[in-house]
Specification:
single chain, mainly alpha, metal ion binding, metal-binding
Length: 123
């Protein structure tokens, strides 16, 4: 039950922060959801760091991992929003932004997870 409450708390904090980032950054570049993109990349980096630290040296315990990885990062990253935005770009015929947004999110997100694992060596 403790883990569930921590996931709930972390998810709420992550979702709130994602909302604010999207609200202020999505309008910056027309046809590109900068806030969602950055939330996904930052979430990938953070989850890589948290899980890397947990696996490498047990620096992050299961309770902290529930709060940070499952909770905060799960609430902060936005795959459902990402998919809805992709659909909107395709529906509106914005194929080039769709391509950049999709490939950029996947490639940069994967690189951010790898970077997070690499950075976790120092904590």
């Amino acid at each position: 039950m403790k883990h569930l409450l921590l996931v709930f708390l972390g998810g709420g904090l992550g979702s709130g922060l994602r909302f604010l980032i999207g609200k202020y950054l999505n309008p910056v570049i027309s046809g590109f959801y900068l806030g969602t993109f950055l939330a996904n990349v930052i979430g990938c980096l953070l989850i890589g760091m948290v899980l890397g630290a947990s696996l490498r040296n047990q620096y992050v315990n299961p309770v902290q991992s529930a709060l940070l990885a499952s909770g905060f990062c799960g609430g902060f990253t936005t795959f459902s929003s990402f998919s809805l935005e992709q659909f909107g770009l395709l529906r509106d015929g914005n194929y080039l932004p769709f391509l950049f947004y999709t490939l950029g999110s996947l490639v940069v997100g994967l690189l951010a997870v790898a970077l997070g694992f690499w950075l976790s060596r120092w904590f």
